[in-house]
Protein: Nucleoside diphosphate kinase
Organism: Liparis tanakae
Amino acid sequence: SYFFQTGWTGENERTFVAVKPDGVQRRLVGEILRRFEKRGFKLVGLKLVKASEDLLREHYWDLRSKPFFRGLMSYMSSGPIVVMVWEGLDVVKTARKMLGETNPADSLPGTIRGDFCVEVGRNVIHGSDSVASAQKEISLWFGQDELHCWEDNSRGWIYD
Ligand code: GDP
Ligand code: MG
């Protein structure tokens, strides 16, 4: 339950990121993992999953009345996705910056969407939009036993 996870602040903040079916098809998984790793964030959860309609509906519940919702459901269930949890200082906000804007056309080069896609309906990646959303999404996609705490031996080279 995400009620246990509300202590995630500072260096322990966590976010949920998913490489969507187009990102998996287009072999972008390694590139995306690489960007988060090299930034200095800590990987605490990772798996390849075929999302159920129920899970996707809950994940995108706020968008249920949008005209593109049905298309979004079929896009997201069209193939496996890679879900991950990253930990670090301000990781929610920083991950959103690394992703770029929802519409790839508005995304700057250097961002994931700005480098790898062109249309909003195939924007290759998801990232939580707030700490509260991250907590909900992590508990929706991951079991407690799938999130791993490990001692970061390069911590002193990443944090002052
Ligand atoms: P995000 O947080 O940047 O992913 O954007 P939203 O939460 O607003 O929307 C979730 C996802 O729905 C987006 O990443 C797109 O895959 C999709 N989406 C949002 N707006 C549109 C739209 O206008 N058209 C289509 N086809 N898909 C959209
Ligand atoms: Mg969103």
